[in-house]
Structure formats: C-alpha cells, structure tokens
Specification:
By secondary structure, this protein is of the alpha+beta class. Helices cover 49% and strands 17% of the residues. The strands form 2 sheets. A 4-stranded mixed beta sheet has the order 2-1-5-6, sandwiched between helices. The chain has a two-stranded antiparallel ribbon with strand order 3-4. About 5% of the residues have low confidence.
Length: 177
C-alpha cells in the first residue's frame, strides 16, 4: 500500500514542483525584461518654477505654454497628467507645438512669474482665475493667458480630442499676435 501511495504521489509532487519552477522562471524573465525598458517611460511633466525662463523659451520657439494647474489627490488631475500630458511629453511630438508645464496649486512651493515676482503656486493659480481643478491654461510668449482653456474633465472619452482642439486654437491665437 505504501508503495502504491508513493507511486501515485511522486509524479504529482514532481508535476507541482515543475510548475512552480516554470512559474518562477517566467516571473524572473518578466522582471528582467522590465529592467531593460528605457528610463524615458518614467518621464515627468516639468513643473512651472520660473515663468520668466519658460516665457523666453516659448518666445524663441514661437509656441504657447500649455500649463496644467492641478491639486494632489485629485482623480481627474491624475488622469489628465498620466493619460494625456505625460504621453505628450514622452512622444516628443509636441516640442515644436507647445511648452508643456504643470503646477500643483496646493503644494507649498514658490515660483517666479513672468515679471520676476516670487509667489506661491496657489496665488499664481488665483491670478489666472483658476477655481476648479484640473484646469489647462494656455499662456502666450509674454506669460499672459490666451482665451483658450480647459476646465475640468467633462467626458473622459472626448478629453484627448478637446485638448488637441484647444491646443490648435491656442496655436492660432499665437500666430495672430
């Protein structure tokens, strides 16, 4: 009886051990391949810290500044950042169309406005009359707000299209100036 029990359980043990080893091997390959991914996937949207410098860069490129004003913990803000702005920065396709920046209105961080005045991010958002988050404001090459802006996220399915159209209108406003 013992021999029969050993005969039946030994193949099951070997099979389960083989599956475990196969699973561990596959997991190791997966983790190893993740280490080989380029670090550009961890790209960040640059923070607005010195609008004077950004204005000079936007003027040289003749592009608007696309500024996302957001708060930490805001679900829609996170969506706009992760699903739209980070891919825009990562793609490199928008470098000649807009200078993309972000500003966390609820962080205790100071920034410099276009005239060189140091102020809090919250105060700067107030000067732009931002009351809801996320808000995308387009600034001209002098740091002044253009007419075009996106307030909130009305429809996740259409947001990418709305953002593209808003950018196109901001570009057109820049060309008229």
């Amino acid at each position: 009886m013992k021999r029969l029990l050993l005969t039946l359980t030994l193949p099951l043990f070997a099979l389960s051990r083989g599956l475990a080893m196969h699973t561990l091997r596959a997991l190791g390959l997966l983790l190893g391949s993740l280490l080989l991914l380029p670090t550009s996937y961890a790209v960040e949207v640059p923070a607005l810290t010195d609008l004077r410098a950004d204005v000079a860069q936007a003027k040289a490129l003749n592009v608007p500044i696309l500024l996302l004003i957001h708060t930490q913990g805001c679900t829609y803000c996170h969506y706009v950042m992760e699903d739209h702005l980070r891919p825009m920065v990562l793609s490199g396709q928008y470098q000649k169309r807009a200078l993309i920046r972000q500003l966390a209105a609820d962080e205790a961080m100071d920034m410099v406005d276009a005239s060189g005045v140091r102020m809090s991010a919250h105060d700067f958002a107030r000067t732009l009359q931002v009351r809801f988050y996320p808000t995308i404001v387009f600034l001209d090459a002098e740091g002044k707000p253009l007419k075009e802006r996106l307030v909130g996220v009305a429809n996740i399915d259409l947001y990418g299209t709305q953002l593209e159209f808003a950018l196109q209108r901001a570009e057109a406003q820049m060309q008229r100036k």
